[in-house]
Specification:
LSM_dom_sf, membrane, alpha+beta, SH3 type barrels, Alpha-Beta Plaits, about 60% helix, mechanosensitive monoatomic ion channel activity, five-stranded antiparallel beta sheet, 8 strands
């Protein structure tokens, strides 16, 4: 027993040896406290913070938060033990205090950042992806937390008040504004985009300036990620969505109607007044398909004759437009509660444009294109029954076919 006392007295009198043993003891105590905390804190984190269980899909997130919490405990343990052990040099105590202060701030900062990350998945799980993305706000929070932590670390290392550190930053404010100008611009743009809800996860956006057309998969502070329809990924700076023109097609899907606005050209030389011969031909060629046309003529004509048709200004093009209008209204995939218009546009050198303006209930691309193709194929096929010609520019074949006739007429 006396030998142990003598050894202890020798160790206590030897300041370097005593300090090394004290440091070793504090490290061992910190390690033990960390292991114990990791074992007990895992259940606490799962139950009270993440509200998950051990069989959930968030085990990696559980372990990260538990590890951050467990890293704080040994720092606190070492700090208090350094205050309780007598005989340590003041310089060593001050060094341990400073080091523990820095580690405590760093670990708390990383813990807060981990908790901020969990809010993204929790918000999406509760409100759904269509409610908007809060990733930009989370990144802003991380920047604020990291900035505060940096100031506190500098204050701890310099042993000065954080107020003094913050006041001294006014001298370098201009430099900081220059360095973080893109971050500040992105911050303002992200707030505008997120608060106005003009872009949300899953939206189909099109930005011709950047050649982008696809689905929004991520909204961050600096960039918005878009998966294009060719399965490529594009990252667009957030500020571009307040400075560059773009189109968000998502409201079209939500409205349940996708617009068809397309025209074809009628040969103007084929436009003429309607005749009884044309009406008889239409009735024979498309029986049961011109009921609305017959009703229209009965309202305006007292008798069917060529003079009456000319007197009332009834043309083959007018009959055709009414026929197409009736055809569109009878289709089940055309929204009759929205605009349905068949109109003329200004004449051009290529002919008289006839525009179809309507909305189809098939908002998805494949079904929409099928509906649009069926409509125009029907019009191309039926225009001939009204003695109307579809205009197209002459080709080499047209010239070759007309040349023998021209030569024969000149001989």
């Amino acid at each position: 027993m006396q030998d142990v006392i003598n050894v202890w007295n020798w160790v206590y009198s030897n300041q370097i040896t005593f300090s090394l043993l004290a440091i070793l003891l504090m490290l061992v105590a910190g390690f033990i406290s960390s292991v114990i905390c990791r074992f007990f804190l895992l259940g606490v984190v799962r139950r009270f913070i993440l509200h998950t269980n051990k069989n959930s899909d968030h085990q990696d997130k559980d372990m990260r938060i538990t590890r951050r919490l467990a890293n704080v405990v040994p720092v606190v343990t070492v700090y208090f033990m350094s205050q309780l052990i007598n005989g340590l040099p003041d310089a060593l105590i001050e060094a341990i205090r400073t080091l523990c202060g820095v580690l405590f701030i760093v670990n708390i900062t990383m813990l807060i950042n981990e908790l901020l990350d969990t809010t993204i998945s929790a918000y999406t799980k509760r409100h759904g992806s269509k409610s908007g993305s809060i990733k930009g706000y989370v990144q802003i929070g991380k920047i604020v937390v990291s900035s505060i932590a940096t100031i506190l670390v500098i204050a701890t290392l310099s042993n000065k008040s954080p107020v003094i550190i913050i006041s001294s930053l006014g001298a370098v404010a201009a430099v900081l504004m220059l360095v973080f100008q893109h971050t500040l611009i992105s911050l303002v743009a992200n707030i505008q985009v997120s608060s106005s809800h003009v872009i949300q996860l899953g939206d189909w956006i099109e930005m011709p300036v950047c050649g982008i057309s696809g689905e929004v998969t991520d909204i961050a502070l600096h960039t918005i990620t878009v998966r294009n329809w060719d399965n490529t990924l594009s990252q667009v700076p957030t500020k571009n969505f307040i400075t560059e023109p773009y189109t968000n097609w998502q409201p079209m899907f939500e409205s349940g109607g996708r617009r068809i606005k397309r025209s074809f050209f009628i040969d103007q030389s084929s436009i003429s007044f309607a005749s009884t011969e044309l009406l008889d031909g239409l009735k024979a060629a498309v029986p049961g398909k011109i009921d609305s046309t017959e009703a229209y003529l009965d309202q305006r004509l007292s008798e069917r004759s060529d003079q009456q048709l000319i007197h009332h200004g009834i043309t083959n093009l007018g009959l055709f437009r009414g026929y197409v209008m009736d055809y569109l209204k009878q289709r089940d995939d055309i929204r009759n509660d929205m605009y349905v218009i068949v109109r003329q546009l200004s004449p051009t050198a290529e002919g008289l444009p006839i525009e179809i303006y309507c909305f189809t209930s098939n908002v998805f691309w494949a079904a929409y294109e099928e509906t649009q193709s069926e409509i125009f194929e029907f019009m191309y096929a039926t225009a001939g029954y009204f003695n109307l010609g579809i205009f197209q520019k002459p080709s080499g074949i047209d010239v070759a076919n007309t040349w023998p006739q021209r030569r024969k007429s000149t001989l």
